[in-house]
Design brief:
With 215 residues, the protein is mostly helical. The protein has one domain. It is built from 10 helices and no strands. Helix 8 packs across helix 10. It is globular, with a radius of gyration of 38 Å.
């Protein structure tokens, strides 16, 4: 009985060793079938950014953008133009008086090139505020009235009939900012001075375009 038992153990062990050897052999075969990406495939997938040649100066590009924008504005609803310039007036006058205001940035960027040109950053100190509204400052009478006229002319284009409408829209913008157009009450005197300077520029524009002035 003991001899038979030993024989069975040896037979079982032999069978186990055969299975293990067979498994190891299969594993080696599987490993040799692994996929390796060829160097040529890797190279063909490499993206090289194309180089572009600049054919226009920055100034010409900006002028083209403004011209394209003005053309688009000619096709827009007249009431939209009026509202846009009213908002722009309120923006500038509110910043001029230190109260701050926000508006349509996309349109301003198209006309003025950047938001800083359309609505210069407000001063953060009393000294800076005084410098901003002084002659030559970003929110001086001359600077603000010039910006208002630039936007009005962008919207009016070559249509003389639009000059009067833009002028009335600017007036409403000053009123929306809180100023009485007759006395200037409601806002600091610099705002009233800016209003009068802007109206004078509108009258000059009318004369150049041959448009009768208001009586």
């Amino acid at each position: 009985m003991r001899i038979g038992s030993n024989y069975q153990d040896q037979s079982i062990n032999s069978t186990k060793m055969y299975k293990i050897s067979s498994k190891q052999h299969n594993t080696k075969e599987t490993q040799t079938d692994s996929y390796q990406t060829s160097s040529s495939a890797t190279q063909s997938a490499t993206y090289n950014k194309p180089t572009t040649t600049k054919t226009q100066t920055d100034k010409e590009t900006q002028q083209n953008k403004i011209a394209s924008y003005v053309e688009q504005m000619q096709n827009q609803n007249e009431e939209n133009k009026k509202q846009l310039i009213q908002d722009f007036v309120k923006n500038n006058i509110s910043n001029q008086t230190g109260t701050g205001y926000s508006g349509n940035t996309d349109i301003l960027k198209e006309i003025f090139g950047s938001m800083d040109n359309a609505l210069p950053p407000m001063a953060t100190t009393p000294e800076g505020a005084a410098e901003a509204i002084a002659p030559g400052g970003a929110y001086s009478v001359e600077a603000v009235s010039d910006r208002l006229m630039e936007m009005a002319k962008a919207f009016a284009g070559d249509d003389p009939e639009m000059i009067e409408k833009m002028q009335n829209a600017v007036k409403k913008g000053f009123e929306a900012a809180g100023m009485d157009l007759e006395t200037g009450a409601g806002l600091p005197s610099i705002s009233f001075d800016t209003y009068k300077a802007t109206m004078e520029k509108f009258e000059e524009w009318k004369t150049e375009a041959g448009v009768p002035s208001e009586e």
